[in-house]
Amino acid sequence: MIYRQTSTIRKIVELIIIVSVVGLIDQWFALNATEWLFNPFIFIILLFSLRYGLNIGLLTFFITTLYYVADESFNGGDVFLLFYDEGNYIELLFLLVLTIIGGMYGTGAKERYESLHYSYDEVSDENKEMREVVEMMEESQKSMQERMLESEYSLKRIYEVGKSLDQPNADLIRNEAIRIISDLFQAKEVALYHVDSSQHAMRLYVRKGSTETFPQTIFINSDSLMYQRLFTNQTITLRTVQDEEGAPLLAGPVVTKGVVKEVLLIDHMDFARLTSYEIQILSILLDWLSDRLEKAHKVALKEEESLMYPGTRIYYKEAFYDKVEIQKKRSQTYGVPYSIIQLGFDGSGNMSLLEVEVILRAYLREIDRIGFDEENQQILFLLPGTEESKASVVENRIQKYLNEKGVHYVE
Fold first, then answer.
1. Domain total for the chain?
2. Which of 70, 239, 300, 323 is most buried, most CB within 10 Å of its CB?
């Protein structure tokens, strides 16, 4: 507190009280303190000069001089001799010099103290900020450690995910992908769609959730802003307020050779999962899914060559019904409908089975499968995602199309 007294009034009051007390004692006991070699007023001047600086020191000297005048007057002396007598004015001059020296020293010390105190406060504030930063870093480090230790995406978990996607069959890979993504991201509505070559329609592959959220077919037009962004950017896309009503919360592309072949849709997802870290994990999963599907497709083409009629993509009867069994299991697990069409084929015509397939492929979807029952002379159609109630409509369209192309079939 020595240099931090900010109240000028308090300084003056302190000065008046001390001078008055010393003066009263001097007068009461007739001590003649002003005539002492080391009179108390010298120490009073030094005290206030050193303590409060030059200004208060000069005020102390002025009040002391007034006391000298009053003392001389009370004792019947000549007041003017204080200023004209060599012995008296030298003492006052000594007190003035002492006041100036002590005041300048006190003012300089005060300024140094204030400078040091300001530097101390500045360093203290910096230290406080540094401690806060260190505490924040420690908390962040602790949080990151806990997240790494408790994360659902630990190296072991990611390895398990990759192993689960390592299936020999594309349909099994899709089934596992839906299960994994639904589990990891706590999503109640998840679906995987096939995108046709025109990118104007998407056909359901596999779904977890209600048919209201994810129908069998999604048609894409110029108003489908979310899907337009998805196909253009080929990155995970989130719904915005400008997107069409009924758009999913999130859409992720499955890109093969620079083309979006399939699309993952997620709705009713925990918003806490929509962080940059979670999106990055999902992007990695989609890349894995694309890679595994492409490899499974290549393997399937080689393996299924022996299951098809030479030179065609028409399955033998037994292989065709194996595909039906796989589709049946998907329907039981994920509720994806399918239908089968049997159409009699008159092989007595001029058209070969290969020519019939070329005609049919122009009409059917990429996900549809064709088989041939040579014994009963029937063309078999497996239509994933098509309900049985609508199978007759598709059958009539196929018959009409075959008639237009001159293909003979049995009613």
1. 3
2. 323
